[in-house]
Write a structure and sequence with these properties.
This protein has helices at residues 3-23, 26-33, 38-61, 67-103, 112-153. It has 155 residues and is mainly alpha-helical.
Length: 155
């Protein structure tokens, strides 16, 4: 089986999963949970990396690419996978900073409404931290999986 065929199978599985995520309404939940929108940037990088891997697989299949040229594009794709994790960690730190800065700024423990607002602010920061971490790790893992399958198809 060619590298492009294997990539295409992965692409269809990812597209089906994205459709299921849409069906269950998780895209909207993720969008609302991440107030920094870093997860959208991560997913944009993931889409570009996935299309780049498909392009590499297609060009090497039809013989237009030498392995050297494919290796250069592959290195950029590995950098993209590392960037996804890094951006996820930036979102984690940003979420924790939002949580700590907004939750305890004007906390009055004698006022129940004030404490409820502090807990609500903490939840917003925590959701941002967790969503960006999850999106960064999953997108990076899927990108590295595609690269591994491509590399092992050409051995």
């Amino acid at each position: 089986m060619s590298a492009f065929t294997k990539w295409w199978i992965q692409f269809v599985a990812i597209a089906f999963s994205a459709g299921m995520i849409q069906y269950f309404g998780w895209w909207k939940l993720m969008y609302e949970a991440d107030i920094t929108k870093i997860s959208l940037l991560i997913m944009g990088i993931f889409v570009l990396a996935t299309l780049t891997i498909g392009y590499i697989c297609f060009k090497t299949k039809i013989g237009e690419y030498s392995w050297d040229k494919a290796d250069i594009m592959e290195h950029y794709t590995y950098f993209a996978a590392d960037s996804m994790i890094t951006l996820g960690m930036v979102g984690t730190i940003t979420g924790f900073l939002l949580m700590l800065n907004t939750a305890f700024a004007n906390l009055d423990i004698n006022d129940i409404k004030n404490v409820q607002q502090a807990i609500s602010n903490m939840a917003v920061g925590m959701s941002t931290a967790l969503v960006t971490t999850l999106v960064g790790m999953v997108c990076s893992l899927l990108t590295r999986l595609q690269l591994m399958v491509y590399e092992n198809s050409n051995v």
